[in-house]
Amino acid sequence: MRLAADHPEPQSNVLDPQRLARLEAILTGVPGDRELRLVLELLDPGNAGTFTWLDQRNASLVLMPGIAALPVQVLLELKGRGELGVLVISREGMGRGAPLSRGVLEQLLERLQQLLPESGLRYRSDRDGPLEPIVNAIGFRQVGPDA
Asked: How many C-beta atoms lie closer than 10 Å to residue 56's C-beta?
């Protein structure tokens, strides 16, 4: 009879989403897609990472902040209706608040505010909670999958 302690399960390359840093934000009042694409290209980090358009509405930044050996990925989504979605993800654990990933989000939002002064921050997961609030027809905020 084999004991699990004698033969541990092989480690998977699949990451546990509960252990990943995942921070989201939504900006409103951004320009139309064509102008916004030109502005977002100004976020290209040069030697500090990569900027890539994944398709017409989605871009990716991969950054190596500071001396950390931990890459941080930023996904930018042109949502239409004057909205821009920002998603910061990394392998950094959320147990200590993911300070590296949170710092990347902070710097990115500051830079976007400089580039898009007319925009406003509608939602930020580390401030407003993990689910984007939805306002129903009566005007009440709802959160969760049933919202």
From this structure: 9
User: Which residue, 117, 105, 115, 121, is CA-closest to 39?
Assistant: 115
Tokens at residue 66, please?
């500071």
Dihedral sign for Cα atoms in the order 145, 123, 140, 32: negative
**110-134 pLDDT, tens per residue?**
999 999 999 999 988 877 776 555 5
Question: How far is the CA of 123 from the CAs of 3, 60, 86, 88, 126, in angstroms?
Answer: 48, 20, 10, 14, 9
| pTM exceeds 0.85 | no
Strand, coil or helix: what is 97? coil
Residue 144 CA to residue 121 CA, distance in Å, equals 20
Q: Please calculate the CA angle 73-77-81 and round it to the nearest 5 degrees.
A: 155
